Amino acid sequence: MDNSKRTVVVTGFGPFGEHTVNASWIAVQELKKLGLGSEVDLHVSEVPVEYQTVQSLVPSLWKKHHPQLVVHVGVSGMATTVTLEKCGRNHGYKGLDNSSFCPDSQCCIVGGPDCINSVIDMESVCKRVTSSGLGVAVSVSKDAGRYLCDFTYYTSLHLSHGRSAFVHVPPLGKPYSGEDLGRALQAIIQEMLELIDQAEEKIHCQQQHFH
Protein backbone atom coordinates (compact mmCIF):
# COMPACT_ATOMS: atom_id res chain seq x y z
CA MET A 1 0.00 0.00 0.00
CA ASP A 2 1.39 3.38 -1.02
CA ASN A 3 1.07 5.71 1.97
CA SER A 4 1.71 8.81 -0.08
CA LYS A 5 -1.63 8.22 -1.79
CA ARG A 6 -4.58 10.17 -0.55
CA THR A 7 -8.00 8.64 -0.22
CA VAL A 8 -11.13 10.41 -1.35
CA VAL A 9 -14.63 8.99 -1.03
CA VAL A 10 -17.36 10.35 -3.29
CA THR A 11 -21.00 9.39 -2.93
CA GLY A 12 -24.05 9.83 -5.16
CA PHE A 13 -27.69 9.09 -4.38
CA GLY A 14 -29.99 6.40 -5.72
CA PRO A 15 -33.35 7.08 -7.39
CA PHE A 16 -36.22 8.91 -5.63
CA GLY A 17 -39.46 10.61 -6.62
CA GLU A 18 -39.38 11.71 -10.25
CA HIS A 19 -35.61 11.15 -10.35
CA THR A 20 -35.82 7.55 -11.59
CA VAL A 21 -32.23 7.98 -12.75
CA ASN A 22 -30.35 10.07 -10.23
CA ALA A 23 -27.99 12.49 -12.01
CA SER A 24 -25.73 12.56 -8.94
CA TRP A 25 -24.87 8.85 -9.17
CA ILE A 26 -24.39 9.08 -12.96
CA ALA A 27 -22.01 12.03 -12.41
CA VAL A 28 -20.08 10.10 -9.74
CA GLN A 29 -19.71 7.08 -12.04
CA GLU A 30 -18.36 9.38 -14.77
CA LEU A 31 -15.92 10.84 -12.23
CA LYS A 32 -14.80 7.30 -11.33
CA LYS A 33 -13.92 6.68 -15.01
CA LEU A 34 -11.89 9.92 -15.11
CA GLY A 35 -10.22 9.39 -11.73
CA LEU A 36 -8.46 12.07 -9.67
CA GLY A 37 -4.92 11.37 -10.85
CA SER A 38 -2.44 8.72 -9.78
CA GLU A 39 -1.89 10.30 -6.35
CA VAL A 40 -5.47 9.80 -5.26
CA ASP A 41 -7.27 6.62 -4.32
CA LEU A 42 -10.90 7.26 -5.28
CA HIS A 43 -13.76 5.21 -3.81
CA VAL A 44 -17.35 5.78 -4.87
CA SER A 45 -20.54 4.68 -3.18
CA GLU A 46 -24.24 4.92 -4.01
CA VAL A 47 -26.38 6.10 -1.10
CA PRO A 48 -30.06 5.11 -0.88
CA VAL A 49 -32.47 7.98 -0.19
CA GLU A 50 -33.22 6.81 3.38
CA TYR A 51 -32.39 8.65 6.60
CA GLN A 52 -31.65 5.53 8.64
CA THR A 53 -29.33 4.04 6.00
CA VAL A 54 -27.41 7.33 5.84
CA GLN A 55 -26.95 7.25 9.61
CA SER A 56 -25.13 3.92 9.42
CA LEU A 57 -23.52 4.21 5.97
CA VAL A 58 -21.75 7.57 6.36
CA PRO A 59 -19.80 6.55 9.50
CA SER A 60 -18.93 3.20 7.90
CA LEU A 61 -17.36 4.95 4.88
CA TRP A 62 -15.19 7.05 7.20
CA LYS A 63 -14.19 3.99 9.23
CA LYS A 64 -13.43 1.81 6.25
CA HIS A 65 -11.43 4.24 4.12
CA HIS A 66 -10.05 6.89 6.55
CA PRO A 67 -10.39 9.43 3.73
CA GLN A 68 -8.74 12.80 3.59
CA LEU A 69 -11.96 14.13 2.13
CA VAL A 70 -15.50 12.90 1.58
CA VAL A 71 -17.59 14.57 -1.11
CA HIS A 72 -21.32 13.86 -1.30
CA VAL A 73 -23.11 14.60 -4.55
CA GLY A 74 -26.86 15.04 -4.88
CA VAL A 75 -29.35 16.14 -7.53
CA SER A 76 -31.50 19.25 -7.24
CA GLY A 77 -34.44 19.67 -9.59
CA MET A 78 -34.11 23.44 -9.13
CA ALA A 79 -30.39 23.66 -9.85
CA THR A 80 -29.18 25.01 -13.19
CA THR A 81 -25.52 25.11 -12.15
CA VAL A 82 -23.21 22.75 -10.29
CA THR A 83 -23.68 24.08 -6.76
CA LEU A 84 -21.15 23.91 -3.91
CA GLU A 85 -22.84 23.75 -0.51
CA LYS A 86 -21.08 25.64 2.28
CA CYS A 87 -22.84 24.07 5.26
CA GLY A 88 -25.17 21.40 6.55
CA ARG A 89 -28.11 22.06 8.87
CA ASN A 90 -29.31 20.03 11.81
CA HIS A 91 -33.03 20.82 12.01
CA GLY A 92 -36.12 20.82 9.83
CA TYR A 93 -36.22 17.31 8.34
CA LYS A 94 -39.91 16.78 7.64
CA GLY A 95 -39.76 15.24 4.14
CA LEU A 96 -40.40 11.49 4.02
CA ASP A 97 -37.70 9.32 2.47
CA ASN A 98 -38.02 6.33 0.13
CA SER A 99 -39.22 4.14 2.99
CA SER A 100 -41.78 6.80 4.06
CA PHE A 101 -39.74 7.61 7.15
CA CYS A 102 -38.57 10.85 8.67
CA PRO A 103 -36.74 11.31 11.99
CA ASP A 104 -39.08 11.92 14.98
CA SER A 105 -36.74 14.65 16.20
CA GLN A 106 -36.69 16.18 12.68
CA CYS A 107 -32.97 16.65 13.21
CA CYS A 108 -29.74 14.85 12.32
CA ILE A 109 -27.97 14.81 15.64
CA VAL A 110 -29.90 15.69 18.77
CA GLY A 111 -27.95 18.38 20.64
CA GLY A 112 -25.63 19.05 17.69
CA PRO A 113 -24.98 22.62 16.50
CA ASP A 114 -27.63 24.17 14.22
CA CYS A 115 -25.26 24.50 11.33
CA ILE A 116 -21.79 23.14 10.52
CA ASN A 117 -19.59 24.73 7.87
CA SER A 118 -17.18 22.81 5.69
CA VAL A 119 -13.51 23.61 6.32
CA ILE A 120 -13.22 24.10 2.55
CA ASP A 121 -13.68 27.63 1.29
CA MET A 122 -16.34 27.00 -1.36
CA GLU A 123 -16.14 30.56 -2.74
CA SER A 124 -12.50 29.97 -3.50
CA VAL A 125 -13.18 26.57 -5.15
CA CYS A 126 -15.94 28.20 -7.21
CA LYS A 127 -13.67 31.04 -8.41
CA ARG A 128 -10.83 28.69 -9.33
CA VAL A 129 -13.01 26.24 -11.25
CA THR A 130 -14.89 29.05 -13.00
CA SER A 131 -11.68 30.69 -14.17
CA SER A 132 -10.33 27.35 -15.46
CA GLY A 133 -12.71 27.56 -18.43
CA LEU A 134 -14.38 24.22 -17.77
CA GLY A 135 -17.57 25.15 -19.62
CA VAL A 136 -19.77 24.14 -16.68
CA ALA A 137 -21.27 26.88 -14.50
CA VAL A 138 -20.48 26.59 -10.78
CA SER A 139 -22.10 28.50 -7.92
CA VAL A 140 -22.16 28.48 -4.10
CA SER A 141 -25.12 27.97 -1.78
CA LYS A 142 -25.80 28.10 1.97
CA ASP A 143 -28.92 25.93 1.91
CA ALA A 144 -28.66 22.27 0.94
CA GLY A 145 -32.45 21.85 1.10
CA ARG A 146 -33.37 20.02 4.33
CA TYR A 147 -33.81 16.63 2.74
CA LEU A 148 -31.48 13.65 2.38
CA CYS A 149 -28.74 15.78 0.81
CA ASP A 150 -28.60 18.20 3.71
CA PHE A 151 -29.05 15.36 6.22
CA THR A 152 -26.13 13.42 4.74
CA TYR A 153 -23.93 16.51 4.61
CA TYR A 154 -24.57 17.47 8.22
CA THR A 155 -23.96 13.89 9.39
CA SER A 156 -20.66 13.81 7.50
CA LEU A 157 -19.54 17.29 8.63
CA HIS A 158 -20.28 16.37 12.25
CA LEU A 159 -18.24 13.18 12.00
CA SER A 160 -15.33 14.68 10.10
CA HIS A 161 -15.08 18.02 11.91
CA GLY A 162 -15.83 19.79 8.66
CA ARG A 163 -13.66 17.74 6.28
CA SER A 164 -16.54 17.03 3.93
CA ALA A 165 -18.09 18.72 0.96
CA PHE A 166 -21.43 18.60 -0.79
CA VAL A 167 -22.09 19.29 -4.46
CA HIS A 168 -25.55 19.62 -6.00
CA VAL A 169 -25.91 18.83 -9.70
CA PRO A 170 -28.84 19.66 -12.00
CA PRO A 171 -30.85 16.81 -13.57
CA LEU A 172 -29.22 15.25 -16.65
CA GLY A 173 -29.58 17.30 -19.82
CA LYS A 174 -30.63 20.43 -17.90
CA PRO A 175 -28.26 21.54 -19.40
CA TYR A 176 -25.31 19.19 -18.74
CA SER A 177 -24.59 15.60 -19.72
CA GLY A 178 -23.30 13.01 -17.26
CA GLU A 179 -19.83 13.41 -18.81
CA ASP A 180 -19.94 17.19 -18.28
CA LEU A 181 -20.92 16.68 -14.65
CA GLY A 182 -18.16 14.10 -14.16
CA ARG A 183 -15.57 16.54 -15.53
CA ALA A 184 -16.92 19.28 -13.29
CA LEU A 185 -16.68 17.03 -10.21
CA GLN A 186 -13.12 16.10 -11.13
CA ALA A 187 -12.07 19.77 -11.39
CA ILE A 188 -13.93 20.73 -8.20
CA ILE A 189 -12.49 17.91 -6.07
CA GLN A 190 -8.95 18.55 -7.33
CA GLU A 191 -9.29 22.20 -6.22
CA MET A 192 -10.68 21.07 -2.85
CA LEU A 193 -7.68 18.80 -2.27
CA GLU A 194 -5.35 21.62 -3.22
CA LEU A 195 -7.01 23.93 -0.66
CA ILE A 196 -6.87 21.27 2.06
CA ASP A 197 -3.14 20.84 1.39
CA GLN A 198 -2.55 24.57 1.66
CA ALA A 199 -4.54 24.77 4.91
CA GLU A 200 -2.55 21.90 6.40
CA GLU A 201 0.74 23.45 5.42
CA LYS A 202 -0.36 26.64 7.13
CA ILE A 203 -1.33 24.77 10.32
CA HIS A 204 1.96 22.87 10.21
CA CYS A 205 3.94 26.13 9.89
CA GLN A 206 2.01 27.73 12.75
CA GLN A 207 2.71 24.77 14.99
CA GLN A 208 6.42 25.13 14.33
CA HIS A 209 6.30 28.78 15.36
CA PHE A 210 4.97 28.06 18.83
CA HIS A 211 7.74 27.19 21.25
TrEMBL record:
Catalytic residues (UniProt):
E85, C149
Q: Does the keyword Flavoprotein apply?
A: no
Q: Which protein is depicted?
A: Pyroglutamyl-peptidase I
Question: From which source organism is this entry?
Answer: Pogonophryne albipinna
Q: Which UniProt keywords apply?
A: Coiled coil, Cytoplasm, Hydrolase, Protease, Thiol protease
The record's function comment reads: Removes 5-oxoproline from various penultimate amino acid residues except L-proline.
Task: Name the Gene Ontology biological process terms.
Answer: proteolysis
Quote the catalytic activity from the record. Release of an N-terminal pyroglutamyl group from a polypeptide, the second amino acid generally not being Pro
Q: Name one GO molecular function term.
A: pyroglutamyl-peptidase activity
Q: Which PANTHER family match?
A: PROTEASE FAMILY C15 PYROGLUTAMYL-PEPTIDASE I-RELATED, PYROGLUTAMYL-PEPTIDASE I
One GO cellular component assignment for this chain's record is: cytosol
Keyword Coiled coil included in the entry's annotation: yes
What Pfam families does the record tag this protein with?
Peptidase_C15
Coiled-coil regions listed in the entry? 182-209
> Subunit details for this protein?
Monomer.
Determine the domain of life of the protein's source: Eukaryota
